[in-house]
Amino acid sequence: MDWKEQYKSFLWIVGFFLFAYFMPIETESFKGAILAAFDLTKWYAREHVLLCLVPAFFIAGTIAVFVSQASIVKYFGAKAKKWLAYLVAAGSGTILAVCSCTVLPLFSSIHKRGAGLGPAIAFLYSGPAINILAIILTARILGLELGIARVIGAVSFSVIIGLIMAFIYHKEEKVKADAQIAMPEIDEARPIWQTALHFLILVAILVFVNWGKPADSNEGFWFFMFANKWFITGFLGIGFA
User: Fold this and answer.
1) Are 82 and 129 within one domain?
2) Mean pLDDT, residues 202-230 taken together
3) Which tens digits make up the pLDDT trace of 34-59?
4) How far is the C-alpha of 219 from the C-alpha of 26, rounded, in Å?
């Protein structure tokens, strides 16, 4: 037996055995932790997967189906000006209400459709940080200065991180860029306004299904929006169909 190849598996087995042997199942804190873990899993499945991830996958599908690869390459790929690609990618998250989980399908979609790794990473990093709801909430609770600082910091760091990632994987990106340069220009078969409308409807659905109840009042505009969010979501769903 070659211990150099087998010792990792052996350590995993020993570690799992020791964990099972000394598992403090008789303590209330351990039982509470287990129940809390399952409770959080249940909440995540109900509130986050259905209301956040599923709409995000629909948005990613809209990008993959209705937005041509040539358009992605034009604004985020090898044919785009670097400064424009990074700024557009870093600022695109403003119109989205996505968290760090729901931005992943969107990142994957634009990257697979031809976006450079640098701009795609910039979008991935800045998207959850500068969405319009997060900016408003930060400015309202922590002050306008911190709200502005959040936007500037998120955009700046997203561009820097995107540039670093593009530099690290520059060989792979060069191969991808050479293939994109040879790609012919293809006219959009679908009017841009239809694609934009579908995209905005899906973003609006993502916003309204997660609309929370105001904590300070049961009256007013914000409570009205909360009380009728499912009717609004249904109306938007009909519009999307």
Assistant:
1) yes
2) 77
3) 899 999 989 888 877 777 778 777 77
4) 48
